[in-house]
Amino acid sequence: MKLKEINRTAIQSWSPAQHHPIYLATGTSAQQLDASFSTNASLEFFELDLADPSLDMKSCGSLSSAHRYHKLVWGPFGMDAQGYPSGVLVAGGENGDVILYDSAKIMAGESDVIIAQSDRHTGPVRALDVNHFQTNLIASGGNESEIYIWDMNNFGSPMTPGPKAQPQEDISCVSWNKQVQHILASASPSGRTSVWDLRKNDLIIKVSDHSNRMHCSGLAWNPEVATQLVLASEDDRMPVIQMWDLRFATSPLKILEHHTRGVLAIAWSLADPELLLSCGKDSRILCWNPNTGEVLYELPTSSQWCFDIQWCPRNPAVLSAAGFDGHIDIYSIMGGSSQAQSQRHISNSFGNMDPFGTGQTLPPLQLPQAATAPATVNPLKKPPKWIRRPVGASFAFGGKLVSLENAKPPQPQQQGSHVVHISQVVTETDFLKRSDQLQATLSSGSFVDFCQEKISAADNEFERTVWSFLKVNFESDVRSRYLELLGYNKEEVALKVTPCIETWLNGSVFVSRVSFDKREESVSVSAKVPPLLWRFFYLIHHFYAGVTFKILIKILSFFSLQDVDGLITQALLTGDFEGAVELCLHDNRMADSIILAIAGGADLLEKTQRKYFNKANSKITKLISAVVMRDWHDILRTCNLQNWREALAAVMTYAQPEEFSSLCDLLGSRLEASEDTQLQSQACLCYICAGNVEKLVSCWSRAQEGQCPLSLQDLVEKVVVLRRAVELTQRSGPAAIGVLLAEKMSQYASLLASQGSLSTAITYLPDNTNQAAVQQLRDRLSRALGHQAAPAQTHRAASQLPSRPAQHGSAPPQPPFSQVRPAMVPQPAAGAPAPTAPSNGWNDPPALTRAPKKKQVPENYTPPAPITAPILTPLGADPHTQPISSGTPQAMVQGHHGNQVQYAGMHQTQLPSQSMNPANPNSNMEGAPGAPTGDAIQPLQSIPAEKITKKPIPDEHLVLKTTFEGLIQKCLTVATDPQTKRKLDDANKRLEALYDKLREQTLSPAIIGGLHNIARTIESRSYTEGLNIHTHIVSNSNFSETSAFMPVLKVVLTQANKLGV
Amino acid sequence: MVSVINTVDTSHEDMIHDAQMDYYGTRLATCSSDRTVKIFDVRNGGQILVADLRGHEGPVWQVAWAHPMFGNILASCSYDRKVIIWKEENGAWDKMYEYNGHESSVNSVCWGPYEFGLILACGSSDGAISLLTFTGDQQWDVKKISNAHTIGCNAVSWAPAVIPGSLIDQPSGQKPNYVKRFVSGGCDNLVKLWKEEDGQWKEDQKLEAHSDWVRDVGWAPSIGLPTSTIASCSQDGRVFIWTCDDPAGNTWTAKLLHKFNDVVWHVSWSITGNILAVSGGDNKVTLWKESMDGQWACISDVSKGQGAVSTITDSQQNEQ
């Protein structure tokens, strides 16, 4: 394909390979005259700008010259050293001149462009070549066997390669060997070719076929094989190219015969030694494979002779050909059509030439042009070396890298080996190590150790605290451990404080007693109350039985430092407690009033408390108020955030188990909303206490900027441990995975996948999300792991897909890609399988094999097993999960898609009708093997509870189970609100913890008794009474002993009461 | 850390030019100067020849797997000027479509993101880029960009589908209004970005930095950030990372990743888009990762042939 043309009759030289951009230098040819008969000479530079689609080449500088040229060569000499930034253009003139031009200067339009010049040669300098290894060396050839070697660093004194060859004759070509730098060949029109060794400074071999018909017009060394060269013959009687090997220099190795008239020029591609260009008097330009003698390509040329042809050293597909028709044409040998380019018309190029002023343009030198069709030019028969990509490493899913290895054959005739390596690329080794640790912890369950390690490895205080908080969850007596972490060690405090308090208390009791008795003694207890007050609370906690007001009252008595009044005495004497209390209140004798109120009965006490709190409004009062009225929400809402530790400690101590989480949440949200970044991060601790994974994630990710793998690992570790903790303590049951957590988990999974940890990755994928990206990733992971879904048996489910429940309307579940499936792609319509469904439906959810199981759910639904019994099965455990053979029948394949829809649909529709707990999607997503997420963060190895041979519940306590379960079932039948149903459902599961305790007989008799009492109240449907007993049990028992089931029981009782079953 | 986990002896009779795993990483497609395309099942470290696809009459340069939602489809391009799209039906691989619209070697094929449908970009030495879109019923719609790169296009690579808003919000059945874009590199030393507007492909950007043929271009997968990233490598030994932060996609800045001593043939982004594999003429594969401060560093060096790896030390890196 022709790229460019220049209207010059000129010889040419490309800029050196190192040079960018690419230029072509042209010099007025000494051998030809154009139609102007002008003998003016010039050097010109043109830029090859392939971005410009036109045929024109931009002229970049020219120089009028006294010389016309036989030969131009452009060497890179001086380009590195910046002496000659565009190298040196060497010209051979008609009068024996060798001239060195500074190309950059010519292009810059400067005047002193000649670096050096010599007229040492006696005749025209037709041959020039620049040494490839030492670019300062030039060889030149003239008449009378003159060959000079010029050193551009020392131009004045050229060397000769050896004694002149005899007989003396013109030198038409010189060429440096491409492999051995001191070897030079020269050729003359007579056909004799000499090879010189410059080290020996002598002729080493003469090459001649003795035919006397080889009139050498071209000489070129094989770019790869040092001993081979080609010679071209100009003689029409012998229009051949001979290939010689000096190792066998008696006759040519190969003769390339295809030209019909003499060959005028040849050029051997340095980029591909299998490409040799030749142009001849038959007006053809041929491209040969000189090794085989095959003509690979014939350039579509004009029917003009071409006398000079050159490969572009930098752009291997480009060549230039100078023709006698006054044009230099630039071609690509890569084929293609030149449709965007104008066709050249010979007449145009002569258009304004009228040298003789005759008013007539010259007729073309040639025969009339055949109309040049915009012929599509076939490319080379053989692809050039430079487009044969030998390497290419590409990434694939799961951090795999696929790389090629094309080993060179040991012998040219043999075949090399061609292998592909698949490698695993791991870039985040620390991350993987930690992920492995986490996995190990999950499987061994050694969370305490894990947390402990994290604590000791923590590099900052906050991290340490967070891990300490997390660790607590796996220890006994969670709340007091939390307190310790907040700086309040119960025992220690008690130890320190008790003696002193006791003294005080005794004193105050004494004083009270005295004041009661004698009414004249004044109490003078120092009022260093605030710091002490906290300790009192712990003291209270120490004695904690819920409603022990006695001590509180004693504390309150400290504040009452007033004298005793006679009026009160009188009131008391008359038994008018109310009056006495009023008086005391009126006189701000709060303690007295309270003490009196106690004596006056519960009603009076409550009234008095209220009045007291209304009146008093110190900081402490608030606390006291909270303690007494049990209204922690208020205090958490209003407390000074700087004192969040105290507030949290108070919650630890006093909050009821069922409100504990929400209180911690409340405090956490306040901290998170605060301005102080320090406080913001502390919110994490509150969320940990609350067991609120979702908020922990959001709080944490706000604090941690960036997507660094290790910070993600940091987060996931905490999340996993906390979720585990939440499950263990059953404080709130396994929470649903929220949007943010799901996102983080997917990020984590894809990161693991990118490191090749596919099987681990899939365990972290949240499965209750409808995000297409997550579902895609799951599909990709399970297929990559070889868990291809088995063909589903039916696809009727798709047509049964019910309309989606309203509460899910905002984000309907989508089978991956269903939305984006372009209309024109054959796709299975629901219930109407298209015959051209992709085989091996690519994204079948891995759950399919269990789809039939799921169908039973509606008829025969049993409440999900308790969460301690993961429904997960290890990946690939299902024997049906076999890879589909690629020959899966279409119908079977179709089923995939059907089921896939069903899969999503089932999940959605079951929720409201089956009271499924969305918080525990696994319970009805059991069809998702290999997709354990959320609560599934439990180790896969954890043994399903059903398999444990449990002790039976002692007969005498069996009634508890039947009663509670019965009540829940009753509630379930009545309940209409899905939320309530879920709650009940959840409760049913969580009561398993109670039954376990019953089996193990670890509950104290008091609690057992209380439970039986509750059961009896249930029988009699007096739930309020049951709740009272409940409160009693809770307030009189150890928190850790009852925390697992008492809150649940309360929920059930409350619901039963509400529903009136 | 790079460790060879499977070595597949392809038994190709001539040089392999490309090897690509499918979407799941379970199948490997290779193509060679021996004019064949082979597919291997490489699950569990195996190497079972699944198919030996014959149909090209010249060296096969590249293969590309379509997204599996369209079925098992593989495209191959060859020096014979043909693009062949192969499809597996009932376990047998067959020609699904043969495209003969180029006048010279077809050097590169790349499937668009699945969101765009089944669309293939082909870059040829005739300078043109063809876009083949499956329209159903065995029909392919062909659009051609002529003179995309004078004397040849060497590589094409699609931009990830930029999701306008959330996918979920799209009413079902309605295709989101994606802007289709891809990048190409060619023998004119240029990297060009193309954009479809009103069904017509238009040159969107022309990125100039290379001083020789652009051998390969790779548009990085989206990692959820608004930044677009493109890697280009060239005969000049340079690898550039082009980034564009502005939503209009008009301002691209080039950063030199490295200047190698030899031609760089191929660049490939990891699926997560944070690692770039660079394959050079010396048959060396290096892996590059951007550090937090935006500098690209070589993180490993897959040695010739062995697949073994020497982690580049600091001193080595400084030398480079």
The level of helicity of chain A is 25-40%
Oligomer: heterodimer
The 3D shape of chain A can be described as elongated
Low-confidence stretches of chain B: 164-172, 304-320
* Principal-axes shape call of chain B: globular
Please count the helical segments of chain B.
1
The count of β-strands of chain A is 31
User: Mind telling me which CATH architecture of the domain at 157-163 and 178-308 in chain B this is?
Assistant: 7 Propeller
One letter per element, helices H and strands E, the order of chain B comes to EEEEEEEEEEEEEEEEEEEEEEEEEH
Mean pLDDT of chain B: 86
Main location (chain B): membrane
GO biological process, one term (chain B): liver development
Pfam families (chain B): WD40
Subcellular location (chain B): Lysosome membrane; Nucleus, Nuclear pore complex
Summarize the structure in short:
Chain A: It comes from Cyprinodon variegatus. Chain A is 38% helix and 16% strand. Chain A is α+β, with helices and mostly antiparallel strands and 1061 residues long.
Written description of the protein model:
The complex is a heterodimer of chains A (1061) and B (320). Chain A is an alpha+beta fold and 1061 residues long. Among the domains of chain A are: 429-488 and 621-725, no CATH class; 569-616, no CATH class; 736-783, no CATH class; 955-1059, Functional domain of the splicing factor Prp18 (RNA Binding Protein, Prp18, Chain A). In chain A, 38% of the residues lie in helices and 16% in strands. In chain A, strands 1-28-27-26 form a four-stranded antiparallel sheet, with no helix packed on it. A four-stranded antiparallel sheet of chain A has the order 2-3-4-5. In chain A, strand 11 (137-141) and strand 12 form a beta hairpin. The radius of gyration of chain A is 49 Å and the shape is elongated. Mean pLDDT of chain A is 71; it is low at 339-375, 507-565 and 789-948. By secondary structure, chain B is mostly beta strands. The two termini of chain B are 20 Å apart. Chain A: It is found in: Cytoplasmic vesicle, COPII-coated vesicle membrane; Endoplasmic reticulum membrane. Chain A: It is a peripheral membrane protein.
